[in-house]
Amino acid sequence: MAGENGWRGGINTEQATASTSHSSVMEIEKVPNNTDSKQETDTNKEKEESTRTVPFYKLFSFADSWDYLFMFVGTVAAAANGVSTPLMTILFGDIINSFGKDSNSKDIVHEVSKVSLKFVYLAIGTGVASFLQVTCWMLTGERQAARIRSLYLKTILRQDVGFFDKFTNAGEVVGRMSGDAVFIQEAMGEKAGKFIQLMATFLGGFIVAFSKGWLLTLVMLSCFPPLVIIGAFTTMFITKMASRGQAAYSVAAVVAEQTIGSIRTVASFTGEKQAIAKYNQSLSKAYTSGVQEAVLSGLGFGLFMFVLFASYALAIWFGSKMIIDKGYTGGAVMNIIFSAVAGSMSLGQASPCLSAFGSGQAAAFKMFETIERKPEIDAYSSDGQKLDDVQGDVELRDVYFSYPTRPDEQVFKGFSLSIPSGTTAALVGESGSGKSTVISLIERFYDPQAGEVLIDGINLKEFQLRWIRGKIGLVSQEPVLFTSSIRDNIAYGKDGATIEEIRAAAELANASKFIDKLPQGLDTLVGEHGTQLSGGQKQRVAIARAILKDPRILLLDEATSALDAESERVVQEALDRVMINRTTIIVAHRLSTVRNADMIAVIHRGKIVEKGAHSELIKDPDGAYSQLIRLQEISSEQNASHDQEKPEISVDSGRHSSKRMSLLRSISRSSSIGQSSRHSFSMSFGVPPEINIIETAPDGQDPAPLEHPPKVPLRRLAYLNKPEIPFLLLGTIAAVVNGAVFPVFGILISSMIKSFFKPPHELRKDARFWALMFVVLGLVSFSSLPIRSYLFSTAGFKLIKRIRAMCFKKVVYMEVSWFDEADHSSGSIGARLSADAAMVRSLVGDALSLLVQNSATMIAGLVIAFVANWKMSFIILVLLPLFGVNGYVQVKFLKGFTADAKKKYEEASQVANDAVGSIRTVASFCAEEKVMQLYQQKCEGPMNAGIREGLVGGIGYGVSFFLLFAVYATAFYAGARLVEVGQATFAEVFRVFFVLTLATVGVSQSSSLAPDTGKAKNAAASIFAILDRESKIDSSDESGTTLENVKGEIEFRHVSFRYPTRPDTQIFRDLCLAIHSGKTVALVGESGSGKSTAISLLQRFYDPDSGHITLDGVEIQKLLLKWFRQQMGLVSQEPVLFNETIRANIAYGKEGNATEAEISAAAELANAHKFISGLQQGYDTTVGERGIQLSGGQKQRVAIARAIVKDPKILLLDEATSALDAESERVVQDALDRVMVNRTTLVVAHRLSTIKGADLIAVVKNGAIAEKGKHETLINIKDGIYASLVALHMSASS
């Protein structure tokens, strides 16, 4: 919120000072910066909030009886499903015993088929249980989350408007409804079921193990603490290293952001090389920590595998002891090993569930808190009186009021106003005087702190809110339409309106004509916020909506100000018809709309300074009303001269970053400044726009849709990675070794099982040998894993580093107009550099190593199995795909099925977004119920989809479990048959079984980790799109001539120019201007006339569309660009300083290699030495982000020193002092006067004081030079442009 208030504050101060000189310039300029501090405060707030959670059982507060049933069934099923794994290990033990005991092959089939049948039963039971588990939990999660969402929206809609000013914006509400609700849903849906299942496996596993043999189980248990510790330490180290890598890379990102964000300064001071060097330096740091992180994770994982295999070794050795001493069976030993491992593994898998619970509880806190909030002004409340009819007398009596967001700024102190029934009252006054606040108080969006608002003599608070709002119709400046048809929008006015009533209302509102012309008529969709209709059409639909309500009191807040003359006439006509016999209150800027009012009240700073009819007020020439009229007349003349643009945005004509303007405007509209913070005073009253609107560099209009770059053949990527081929080859070998580990593990286990049934002396010898083999396997794993991750990560990270460096270098040398496009902003380029490069790495490093490893696993597995017994191998091979399916589904389940919930609810969120964004309209038309109905309607589809998903997920999960156990049953039964006919031995059956199943499990689980190759391919395409683009004005280009001796004669010859991002706005038409060597030329003109554009063209940020610019008679296109830019020193209105020391910032003028003496000499000249020496660290003071630690005047002087160090022949001053207060301006102006001696200087300025002394003043108008000469000559031309600018300037500053 801090930021938001800052914004609003910014706009407000801007209105207050609009008519004085320039303080407002700073105001608008500062607006964007506030967002930084906002983000900081927000993150701190989030930290505080994230710690507040609700207890877990509270998540289920909104469950109904069906939900309780679902949760009960789901819990039982999850427990049953969890126990299935330990039960399976028992059957496994039985199978081993059946095979091992009976060398008599006849009984084998009988024994084994009995156990296989049990497997089938288990398969069916588990299938059903897991289906019920997933389905029930997903259903109840979906239902409860939907209930929480709609309750939340319902509560949000009933809050008072003040709540929205203070706490919430539409984005946050939608974010909570889509994001937080998903977290809550996960926590109380499938994750809850999963957790119960895992706990059941854990308990079941150890119960089975202890019951089969407690001694061996205890020995097994001793191995688990080291595994847990290793796991924990590895994750800890990895996160530490990862964050170190993040930090190192974020330094690089900051360099990129700063460079791209101030590309004009970088280009002007030819600082590209420095930026590139700095960026590459920070990339190296990121590279080393990336490789370290990979090696550490490899080591940790390797160690983990080693301990795991070592514990198998221990268990086998100790198990064989137990068989000899304690009479265990071989089956029991394997049963204990497997069930203990299963139990402990399930404990490890529970951690994602716990974190899901945590985030769910945290998300719920904020949502539930809101759901329980009772508003101060409650639209749902049915208390309060209703009258039979309202006369429509409105009175504000002694009202004191300030907005809840700015409690210390009193808008009204004892404000009184009475409007008799049936009359029309108009409120006029400058922006921010409190006109619209009157309307907000009558609508009861806010309650006054003291005093009362009366309708028919009864305090507004006494009425039932819904009823009284039903009697008041509001038409505002920016009518809010909802994303639905015209008919629905009009129908908001009255519940259950018939089609006849809707048509009649449209007729009255002058809207039926245009509606009938539309192909779908009343059923035409208006688009989001009514974007499909023109302003006048929207306004008339809004008026029809108000008419349908048939209100006694009509409130028109600037209802026609945003329209052009033609629409205004039509809308005004409609309003005149509607106003008959109703109490009407009009707020307007345009005085033409209020002439006919019965009473006009002029409001100034929350007081009524004059009231009466137009004819009376006009008689007092010094009255406030007459002054307002005069101001408007001046401004309309100005507007007339303004290329017939809409006067409303006249200011915005030429180079204004219209994005920023519209941002300001939209903020001011949505903001709580009801006091008509419509357009700043200067815009509506036309105090010369010249004075307080800044020129900024053009900003792209609308972000163009991202063109999808063409796909890239992988060859090119591989080619980029060419220097790392040796690493990749060695890495491949390591990956192959690593891949063979699982199949070998299978051989070891099966051989061991066979030994368990040998006589004691052989068993002792075998056990020692096989245990040793397990340890060896562990060692192999321990050594190959870190080697593999080191080699692949080195290759991958080197690739990232290379790609980033290449891209950055390319970007820095792009021509400036490339950065004007919205998708080349510093943010999006930064994202491309960081995310896309990392994506591409995953394609080379991770994907490649996984591919190699998986192929190795599969090949090794097949070879071993077929060598052992080809018939058995074929049988299992046929069943294997089913296994793969199971592995995949399991992993998918661990990640969760709900991930797509956000997407599904997008349409429903749109409804919420609309409603919250236009809460005043919803409140004023009591449309809360309607919005809720619409919302629930939009939720039905996604909700059913969610339920379907639950069923499908459940079926998939159930089937996968069923298949798993069914495969076991089939495989062993088939094995038994083969043993019976002597085609296989006991050991071979197990060897083939274990080798192939383990291989499959290895492959299916690791492939789920495979990176998203599709995304990576797109990333590669976007990177090559940058690498392949040639810069149109490239300062790294070494071709071009240089001049021995620069005099500084500059000439613009017939220059025409348009900004590439705004091809329809002509900035220069055939502009000619000569600037003689050593002379000072000043450019003046209205905002947007192209004064600063001249400087951009001169620096070759852009090239003219036609015509030439020459330096000493040579076309600047022919000069060596880098050298040419070094001849010029630029000081602009908002100097961009880099976040470094003052010394570094000044030295930047000489590409960083200026001597101490040069730096202090430049600072002396720039009047900066004194204040710098006064700072504690002197020249080593860091200036902060964008120079924020220095005042405006100090920044400006450092910038001047930076320009002087260059010792330029040509000095360009773009509004260099406009943003300063009088004192700093004097000092800076002094500095400039010293610097300008003997240099060709081009000055762009607003303030007269700065240009009076120029050798030549050129007035730019309509893209050409309209007048030029010295100040004395120009000021005496009667009705001259310069003379009138001066006159305006004088009157404004007085």
TrEMBL record:
What keywords are assigned to this protein? ATP-binding, Glycoprotein, Membrane, Nucleotide-binding, Repeat, Transmembrane, Transmembrane helix, Transport
Q: Polar residues bias: where?
A: 12-24
Q: State the Gene3D superfamilies in the record.
A: ABC transporter type 1, transmembrane domain (1.20.1560.10), P-loop containing nucleotide triphosphate hydrolases (3.40.50.300)
**InterPro entries on file:** AAA+_ATPase, ABC1_TM_dom, ABC1_TM_sf, ABC_transporter-like_ATP-bd, ABC_transporter-like_CS, P-loop_NTPase, Type_1_exporter
Q: Which GO terms describe its cellular component?
A: mitochondrial inner membrane; plasma membrane
Q: Which residues cross the membrane?
A: 68-92, 119-140, 195-211, 217-238, 294-318, 330-348, 725-749, 769-792, 847-868, 874-894, 951-974
Q: Which residues form the signal peptide?
A: none
Where is composition skewed (Basic and acidic residues) in this entry? 37-49, 640-655
PROSITE patterns noted in UniProt: ABC_TM1F (PS50929), ABC_TRANSPORTER_1 (PS00211), ABC_TRANSPORTER_2 (PS50893)
Q: Which family does it belong to?
A: Belongs to the ABC transporter superfamily. ABCB family. Multidrug resistance exporter (TC 3.A.1.201) subfamily.
Question: Under what name is this protein listed?
Answer: Uncharacterized protein
Q: Please give the organism.
A: Vitis rotundifolia (Muscadine grape)
What broad taxonomic lineage does this protein's source fall under? Eukaryota, Viridiplantae, Streptophyta, Embryophyta, Tracheophyta
